[in-house]
Recover the amino acids of this structure.
């Protein structure tokens, strides 16, 4: 469904991604793991059209998307829930969600709104509240909800657990697994290795802008290199 | 009671002028609130719109109020095109470049008008130009009363657009969170240009409302835009309600200080307010805290 091949991208001529390749199949949860600064966010920004790629290919459903603008990639159904949430703080929860269907899913807006409120009942209680006044966890729910409003075919979640309390992290991962259980493909980009591997079927581990480990989540969980690097064992 | 009547009439005149000031400030504050830049071509665009009303009336015999329906979409389109195809590409994403480009545009527009129309001051003659509405001892100029209510209608429509339509919501979204907007499928460049177009459309309407009682020369816009800057700062940069209330306050202050300090000192009150706001409430009346 999503194919990234030998991707090179960066800022101001400095490459952050150095020939990176990953795949996401329909309906699967794929984790992309790595510490701070290995290029996870750059990868997301390149896939969703926020930065231009230097070389390599990105295909979605077989069609190249690396030259498309961010709105065109949204229109294709590839939705990116960004790191730091990037919600609209000056607007109500409802307006934030409505804007999720600005480009895609507009005809089903009312039904999708109900669906999102079904997944995140806490957002329903806060429909009229300014998004900027929500707690961190609620803002994350809002960001995911806004993404779901566009009827994604593949959703990229960049660090959804960042800045949340351990209890909320559990809740967030449970919600993501529930969303994915409906058949949505999820690319989960995380630093939280243990919980991401519980959720995902397959995973890639990035270092220095390239994939250094890849495989099924079960295999990676037992891989001594991963244990050493991320779990200190 | 004569003195009180004069005061009342100055107050009413101030409110009516203030409403048009508010309309001009509305365009400025909208562009600032979304693009986070001061549009230095705002005054020159107003001048161009006033000349457009003048030409429509003197050449094509089109009434200024009828011209609203033609010039508003025309100026929206011009504003859209200038932002999208001139200002945005020339700025390379750098705000200080945008300032310089709009400043350059204002110089080009002003001098083109100077070349085309010379520096003469011109006005148009409409049959209702001197008609008045009598309320008790108050005599209100009909075109000014029309301008007052029309300005509120435009501000109300603009508010509805921003609050209720998807495009309006996208404008507010882009104002605060560009990346989030792009990832929701909003074309940020398009929204910037729409915002700029709306600013120019406000000026076209203001020009149509002003021309029945006002005159035009190639530098006229500057006088208005200085006042509009004060209003935007007073009301709070980027605030629609602030522009409206600020416009009315400034109109009344100008009119009353003209009454008490003499016509030539009328504008002193405006700039006193400007300095006081900057000293004591730099975010303005409706401005968000930084």
């Amino acid at each position: 469904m999503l194919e990234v091949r030998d991707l090179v991208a960066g800022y101001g001529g400095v490459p952050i991604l150095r020939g990176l390749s990953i795949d996401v199949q329909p309906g699967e949860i794929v984790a992309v793991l790595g510490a701070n600064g290995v290029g996870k966010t750059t990868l997301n920004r390149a896939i969703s059209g926020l930065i231009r790629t230097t070389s390599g290919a990105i295909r979605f459903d077989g069609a190249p998307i690396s030259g498309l603008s961010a709105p065109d990639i949204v229109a294709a159904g590839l939705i990116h829930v960004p790191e730091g949430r990037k919600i609209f703080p000056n607007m109500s929860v409802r307006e934030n969600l409505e804007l999720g269907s600005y480009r895609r899913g507009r005809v089903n807006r009312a039904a999708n709104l109900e669906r999102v409120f079904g997944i995140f009942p806490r957002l329903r209680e806060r429909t009229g509240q300014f998004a900027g006044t929500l707690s961190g966890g609620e803002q994350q729910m809002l960001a995911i909800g806004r993404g779901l409003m566009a009827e994604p075919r593949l959703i990229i979640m960049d660090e959804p657990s960042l800045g949340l309390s351990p209890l909320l992290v559990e809740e967030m991962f449970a919600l993501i697994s529930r969303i994915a259980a409906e058949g949505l493909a999820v690319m989960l980009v995380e630093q939280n290795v243990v919980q991401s591997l519980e959720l995902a079927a397959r995973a890639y581990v990035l270092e220095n802008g390239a994939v250094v480990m890849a495989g099924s989540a079960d295999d990676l969980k037992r891989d001594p290199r991963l244990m050493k690097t991320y779990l200190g064992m | 009671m004569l003195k009180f009547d004069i005061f009342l009439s100055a107050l009413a005149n101030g409110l009516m002028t203030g409403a048009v000031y508010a309309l001009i400030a509305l365009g400025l504050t909208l562009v600032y609130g979304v693009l986070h830049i001061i549009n230095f071509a705002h005054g020159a665009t107003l001048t161009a719109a006033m000349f457009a009303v003048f030409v429509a009336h003197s050449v094509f015999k089109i009434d200024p109020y009828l011209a609203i329906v033609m010039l508003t979409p025309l100026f929206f389109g011009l504003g859209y095109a200038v932002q999208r195809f001139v200002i945005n590409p020339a700025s390379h994403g750098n705000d200080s470049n945008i300032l310089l480009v709009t400043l350059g545009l204002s110089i080009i527009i002003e001098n083109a008008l100077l070349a085309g129309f010379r520096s003469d001051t011109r006005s148009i003659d409409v049959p209702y130009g001197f008609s008045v509405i009598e309320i008790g001892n108050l005599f209100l100029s009909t075109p000014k009363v029309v301008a007052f209510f029309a300005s509120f209608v435009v501000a109300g429509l603009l508010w509805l657009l921003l609050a209720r339509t998807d495009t309006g919501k996208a404008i507010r979204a882009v104002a605060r969170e560009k990346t989030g907007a792009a990832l929701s499928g909003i074309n940020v460049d398009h929204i910037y240009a729409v915002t700029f177009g709306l600013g120019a459309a406000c000026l076209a309407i203001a020009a149509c409302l002003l021309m029945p009682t006002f005159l035009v020369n190639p530098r006229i816009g500057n006088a208005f835009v200085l006042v509009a800057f004060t209003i935007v700062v007073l009301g709070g940069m980027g605030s629609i309600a602030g522009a409206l209330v600020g416009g009315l306050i400034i109109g009344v202050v100008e009119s009353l200080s003209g009454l008490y300090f003499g016509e030539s000192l009328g504008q002193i009150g405006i700039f006193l307010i400007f300095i006081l706001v900057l000293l004591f409430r730099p975010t303005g009346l409706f401005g968000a805290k930084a």
The longest strand of chain A covers residues 14-24.
